Amino acid sequence: MRSTILIFVSLLLIGLIQFIDIKGTGESGDKGYVIVLHGGAGEMNRNTPDSIKNAYYKSLTEALTIGKKILEEGGTSMDAVEKVINYLEDNPDFNSGKGAVFTAEGTHELDASIMNGRDLSCGAVAGVKHIKNPISLARMVMEKSPHVLFAGEGAERFAEKTGIELVSNDYFHTQQQLKKWEERSKKDKNGTVGCVALDKTGNLKEGTSTGGMSGKMSGRVGDSPLVNAGTYANNNSCAVSCTGWGELFIRNTVAYNISALMEYKNMSLQEAVKYMIHNRLPESSGGLIAVDKNGNYAAEFNTTSMLRGIADSKGKFEIKIWE
Amino acid sequence: MRSTILIFVSLLLIGLIQFIDIKGTGESGDKGYVIVLHGGAGEMNRNTPDSIKNAYYKSLTEALTIGKKILEEGGTSMDAVEKVINYLEDNPDFNSGKGAVFTAEGTHELDASIMNGRDLSCGAVAGVKHIKNPISLARMVMEKSPHVLFAGEGAERFAEKTGIELVSNDYFHTQQQLKKWEERSKKDKNGTVGCVALDKTGNLKEGTSTGGMSGKMSGRVGDSPLVNAGTYANNNSCAVSCTGWGELFIRNTVAYNISALMEYKNMSLQEAVKYMIHNRLPESSGGLIAVDKNGNYAAEFNTTSMLRGIADSKGKFEIKIWE
Question: In the annotation, is A243 catalytic?
Answer without folding.
Answer: no
